[in-house]
Amino acid sequence: MTVKHLRIDNRLIHGQVTTNWVNSVGASHILVVNDQVAKDPIQKRLLPAAARGVKTSVLGIAEAIAYVTDAANASEHVLVVAKFPSDALVLLEGGVKPEQVNVGNQAPIPGTNYKMVTKSIAVTAEDAAVYRRIVDLGFHLTSQMLPSDGKADFISLLEKKGL
């Protein structure tokens, strides 16, 4: 299986993913990955409907790792959407090897001590440590809202905000 792109975006499936990212990276299947979302029958039903005809699976992290590493799925080209940076880290530690890792959007979570790194990405000190661990695994981490936008080095953005 070719994992064309891993996007960290707590909005999961929305217009930017279905109309821009799927076509831009050449994906034919979206994997939405988060353990809580995968247990929610409403989200499991609604997220594929929001994908506008693109094959979509809503999986827990362990299920996603098993799916991506299963030789039976070797011909697929997927776009993985991880809800949180911690989801992405576990996927990468589990052997998922995307061609690109991008932080798309992280809305602030009420009650957390976050800083806005961009106008759409909130980061806590704990999140920053997770992002750095992703880079330590050998992945280049970028911030890019749309494929037509320029890529920004995400660690540099964290450093500018003192994270």
TrEMBL record:
Compartments, record wording: Cytoplasm
Keyword Transferase applies: yes
Pfam family, one: PTSIIB_sorb
Family matches, as Gene3D superfamilies: Phosphotransferase system, sorbose subfamily IIB component (3.40.35.10)
Keyword Transport in annotation: yes
Superkingdom in the source lineage: Bacteria
InterPro entries per UniProt: PTS_IIB_sorbose-sp, PTS_IIB_sorbose-sp_sf
Residues covered by the PTS EIIB type-4 domain: 1-163
The entry's keywords: Cytoplasm, Kinase, Phosphotransferase system, Sugar transport, Transferase, Transport
Protein name according to UniProt: PTS sugar transporter subunit IIB
